Predict the structure of Short-chain dehydrogenase/reductase SDR.
Amino acid sequence: MTNLKNKVALVTGATRGIGKGIAIALGEASATVYITGRSLKKPYINDSISGTLEETQVAVEKAGGKCIAIQVDHTDDEQVRLLFERIKNEQQGQLDILINNAFSGAGALKDAYSQPFWKSEPHLWDSVNNVGLRSHYISSVFAARMMAPRGGGIIFTISSWGGMSYLFGATYGAGKAAKDRLAADMAVELKPDNIASISIWPGIVSTERIINLTHQSDNSNILDTFGDTKNWETPFFIGRVIATLATKANIMDQTGKVCIVAEVAKKYNIIDENGNCPISIRSLRFLLPITVPALRKYAWLIPNIKVPWFLLLWGKLASPQI
């Protein structure tokens, strides 16, 4: 069992989805977990997908951790500053782990899905990359100011292979590529203070929003794109991977790198909460069925071997044919 007792973590954007799963997994590892989001006691008024900080808090504490829920609008830098000031005061300056996860662009991406960027209003960029790329930078600034005097810490930034190959449009891809670059360049500047900065790439994650899409027939083309649901990851799986990485004494060996969730899980024998072991997003068994739709029914025959990074950079194998 991963043990993060006496460690303090912050997960931004934890009302549901990946952030909630990470927070619960950190609780399972006995960490003290601060969580942020827009909805404290009831769902955010402009969002049809439910989830609140209080629900996440209950789940984290049930898993074995201590959880402090703080309502924060990550578009407001002053609210973010006060968040870190509160953690500093309550934890005597201690913050060991930051998970940059907050993201508010999912709805905007869904509305703009399959149309070129110039047919959307320019504010699509801000909808996708304000609470996301920009907010990750702001949180990292305040986190590093707490971690450096204590001689160490870890900053995980949730990103996507969409930063390497076309996925959900220009605004999404640019934002994800920038997150990877942000994590890598922060690593250079944080290394003298023993702070690791790592970019995390999940696979296809069965979040509440994705599950909601499965019940909407008009979105069948989106769902078919990503193939066999047996290879989807739960948010909790990502959390277990992050919790495991956070315990490693050699974590600085990973700083500045991209860690693919399924590959880390395989290395450390981590299983998903449903008992599955999802395959890597750079496995031929994952990539070929989403690239060549005719191969989807034969996915089980495709070797589960990883392709070189340069093929993802080329983009042909990683770009879904929709």
